[in-house]
Structures
1.
Amino acid sequence: MQDPLIVTTSTASYPVVVEAGALTSLPGRLADLGLRGALWLVCDAAVAQAYGEPLAARLRAAGFTVHTHGVPSGEASKCADELWRLYDWMIGGAVERRDAVLALGGGVVGDLAGFAAASVLRGIAVVQLPTTLLSMVDAAVGGKTGVNHALGKNLIGAFHQPRLVLADTAALATLAPRELRAGWAEVVKHGVISDAGLFAELEELAAAHHWDERPLAGWPDQDAELALRLTAIIRRAVAVKVGVVSRDEREQGERITLNYGHTIGHAVEALIGYGALLHGEAVAIGMHAAARIAVAMGLCDEGLLERQRRLLAAYGLAVTMPHGLDPEAVIATTLRDKKVQARRVRWVLPTAIGSVTVRDDVPEDLVREAIALRADA
Ligand code: GLY
């Protein structure tokens, strides 16, 4: 068992545990944190049977009072109606300030349940229990919570740091192959923005395994070596996020680098409709476009673009823009990004594998060229 990673911000300090089987340690860890009130387990419907029910039983056996609530899978659940259902459930069940919300599932449940915890009774504790690769390496760490508004993603929310994050990598065994692929995009992103060694490890792992064809069924029991290697890589990717949010909790500076690939990615998601493309799939497209812009601006060479494209492809991620998207609409949508300042888009652009810069002087024509990809580009 490894020491947990620790997020330390000016407002909070909490452990982030990345381990196969980590969920079994939850009752003891909650007790260690002094969380002895009732537990409000919010669970993605897709993992309720496999992980939610056994977890609730384990917590009850350890003496906790556990209330459970299922949330339909998918981005559409990050909405005011689902949020109000959580309030009705908790307030109707006499939630108290010493209680804690447990968010079990992917980024949707983490953001939704996290925001309910941030706001009910002016804030109660939340513990993030990510079961998707994407939420393990990104969404569950760093305290961003919220729901979507009809005019844009994540426009209503709050920073609410969890008391604990437990990423049980064994849960990846039952993750749909497409969800796993989408998660790799954020792992690759962390390599590009700040860890060249992680990027190289991903290249080596890609050479040894074909992720697009070989989901992790039977894992980790049937392949202990792969389990260790993959868990170590995920932990390394999580460490990038832990470092960034510890240094810049409120996105005053460095945290914006986590937005690499998201400017175009969010625009593409918004234009083709949330859910048509998974978030990670859109981020892969966005990273490719951002790297093309960086090449055109002379910030990095073609080699980086090609290395990144090959790595994304090795994990089953396409980088071409979806058919039928109007490039002008994409450009207009980037201007509604939350990171826009004084009507200038702040682009995160790579300068080398492991290093990025932030620029607000990208000419629109370069963006136009970067997103006008042929299907084979
Ligand atoms: N997902 C980006 C961030 O947490 O800042």
2.
Amino acid sequence: MNKDFLSISELSKKEVFELLDLTDSLKTQKEVKPLAGKTVAMIFQKPSLRTRVSFEVGVVQLGGHAIFLTDEGVGLGVRESAADVANVLSRFNDAIVARVFNHQLLLDLAKHATIPVINALSDLTHPCQILADLYTIRQHGKLRDHVKVAYVGDGNNIVNSWLELASIIPIHLTLAIPFGYEPDTETLNKAVNAKVSKIEIIRDPRSAVNKADVVYTDTWTSMGQEQEKTKRIFDFWEYQVNGSLLRQAKKDVIVMHCLPAHRGEEITDEALDGPQSVVNDQAENRLHIQKAIMATLIGKKK
Ligand code: CP
Ligand code: NVA
């Protein structure tokens, strides 16, 4: 891996599978402490439950100490430039974990920090989530070449990271996304041009989930888009994952959602709480995969 982990496109296929295997071994070997005596500074510009807790718990389980910094305290890019924040945090810490509105802030932090910077979600991508999701798909015995993943909903940061993964490992990725809500054009083009996966954007959720192994959805209104919520509920109403939609998929389909869910909007209680749902495994696996990422990036640093 490079110094930082900002997006899945930085990884090779071999590195992706090495991370999955290291995740397996760290789950069982609790005595491994590669972060002993090390500190991780965590800057969050947006709310978080899973990401914050899984990183903090992961750092502690690996023997280190996490320092949670709210953006009101840091003022990343406002009170101080990302470069100045990166320079200073590099003098005290062994890594920076950052959740930002503007992806450029992560690039600036990484450019100036002498320590690893890990993307804990940006407007553009959410790589730790998608690696945890891949691990979850493998855990449920679904990972094979061209596994059919149907994503229904907004072409957001989650979709961009799926596309980056699809540039590396072969997936049949069908995106049911309404007109005007497509993923990042550059990320989409790169994924298509990589010719590793079959990638389709269609408008009809029912055809998208036809014979799918995995049905994935995420909120219609991501953090920072709250003022568009009413319009989005109107534009997305046909893109709900519910029992009727799931009956189009394979009988043993798994239902995924990165959470937080907006019950009754992108997903119903029936789908989220039903026997096909693996959403809590996804959440738990954030801890395990991030431990592997941190052990690889930070653990090797003397
Ligand atoms: N899935 C996820 O990143 O959740 P949080 O926003 O709660 O961290
Ligand atoms: N797309 C969502 C993901 C939350 C984990 C958001 O950015 O708010």
